[in-house]
Design goal:
By secondary structure, this protein is an alpha/beta fold. Helix content is 44%, strand content 14%.
Length: 457
């Protein structure tokens, strides 16, 4: 297959980066990108985002004339692609970016200016790089407020976490135990694709290199899903509830709530694990966004699990509008958060979030916890998680909740896996599966708290 020229991908890369500059995430633009270009455009755009601060610092030093907004975006993208280590030969980058400009009717006349700026960067790279890299925001490619927050909250690990955010996350699979063990699917994957993998936990496989889902054996039939190892902990923590174990042993029906459930990966994993132990289960998958709720249905349909779930579009903070009054035996609350723990997979997050978002989202989380806790049966379990590294959305949130709820108790120490604490998963080891030696690579930054409601006396 002939590689797509960079000049054809570059305008879509620039559109994606412009969307981030306008406060929108990359998903919408990438969804409109021609399918033949989408993978390459995403890889290039993510590379640019990982050089965002550096490129924005370099561009003003390349010419005395200030570029207009559109031209600046194109320059930022071109400059980012020239940062070492480079994906392309520098002269190829310059040539292809200039070609892309010439093919754009609005930028055609500005192609010589772009050419001059990029060639200057190639000639004076070391001096320009040294001039901008003293600033922490440039060095770590995160906003200053974010850097300072991690410094204060994780004085021993903040640099490691920021550097880790700059690396692309590996591809991790969740094997459906109704069809395969992790080991049997690992062997199947190797035989059909020649891709090596290692097991992470009971159902996870960390791939040596990413694959299109269309190449995953049995993907369309629901044998496997793509899911990072951190969210794979959620279902296991729910099903280890003493109340659920008692009900399953007695063949009694089990009612579960997955709040903020889109896109449905955790809902599906709950059901997969329930099927494995032959639970008489019913999951209510709650989602505020109608558009995102469709993704839950699509996920469950692909995995042949839709018959065991009710997808409800409603606000979890206002239970009167959707709750029928029957308590749930367990609740999984994957609360909306800053997504500060999954920057490896979403490098636009640091440039979309604002410092004020942390307090606002922490308030939303507190409201959800307070609203959903009364829906939990005595003796039941609520598993709270966020894909955040900030303590306002994790340990501090739960400390405040425990103070306000005398009938809540932690079933374990707080569990905080992820790259914020490399190679270490804290908490009660009896609650956690054997994660294996590859836990650090496979885990995004997640926070978990396992809360049980005291049984009625």
């Amino acid at each position: 297959m002939t590689p797509t020229p960079l000049s054809e991908q570059f305008p879509w890369v620039a559109q994606t980066i412009q969307a981030v500059g306008n406060g929108r995430n990359t998903d919408a633009v990438l969804a409109k990108t021609p399918s033949a270009l989408r993978g390459g455009v995403q890889a290039l755009a993510f590379h640019v985002l990982r050089q965002w601060a550096w490129a924005h610092a370099v561009v003003p030093r390349l010419a005395s004339k200030k570029p207009d907004a559109e031209l600046k975006v194109w320059l930022v993208c071109g400059v980012a692609l020239l940062r070492e280590p480079r994906r392309y030969d520098p002269h190829t980058v310059v040539d292809q970016v200039v070609q892309a400009c010439k093919q754009n009717h609005r930028l055609k006349a500005k192609a010589p200016f772009v050419n001059a700026c990029l060639r200057r960067l190639v000639r004076e790279y070391d001096a320009l790089d040294q001039a901008v890299c003293n600033e922490p925001e440039v060095r770590f490619n995160h906003p200053t407020w974010w850097i300072e927050k991690l410094q204060a909250q994780y004085p021993d690990h903040w640099e490691e976490a920021l550097h880790c955010n700059q690396t692309a996350a590996p591809m991790v699979l969740r094997v459906n135990p109704a069809h395969h063990s992790a080991q049997s699917y690992q062997a199947l994957l190797l035989s059909e694709t020649a891709v090596q993998s290692v097991t992470v936990g009971p159902h996870g496989l960390l791939l040596a290199k990413p694959l299109p889902v269309t190449q995953l054996p049995g993907f369309g039939a629901g044998h496997v899903s793509v899911q990072d190892a951190s969210p794979q902990l959620a279902a296991a923590l729910v099903w280890q509830s003493p109340l659920l174990r008692e009900k399953v042993a007695a063949s009694a029906p089990v009612a579960l709530l997955d709040a903020c459930a889109a896109p449905g990966g955790k809902t599906a994993h709950l059901l997969e694990m329930g099927q494995r132990i032959k639970a008489d289960q019913r999951v209510t998958a709650l989602e505020l966004s109608p558009k995102r709720a469709v993704r839950i249905t699509d996920t469950l349909t692909r995995l042949n699990l839709a018959a065991f779930a009710d997808v409800v579009v409603a606000d979890g903070k206002h239970t009167a509008g959707w709750w029928a009054g029957k308590p749930f035996d367990a609740i999984l609350l994957d609360a909306p958060c800053t997504a500060s723990g999954i920057v490896r997979r979403h490098p636009d997050v640091p440039w979309l979030r604002r410092a004020a978002d942390v307090a606002q989202l922490a308030q939303d989380q507190q409201q959800l916890l307070s609203a959903l806790w009364p829906l939990l049966a005595p003796g039941g379990r609520l598993v709270y998680c966020t894909c955040s590294s900030f303590k306002e959305e994790g340990v501090w949130q739960i400390d405040a909740f425990l103070t306000a709820q005398p009938d809540a108790m932690t079933a374990s120490d707080l569990v905080a896996p992820g790259h914020i604490l490399p190679g270490n998963v804290s908490g009660n080891p009896n609650l956690l599966p054997d994660l294996g030696e590859n836990a650090f690579m496979a885990f995004d930054g997640f926070f978990y708290a396992v809360l049980d409601k005291r049984a009625a006396s």
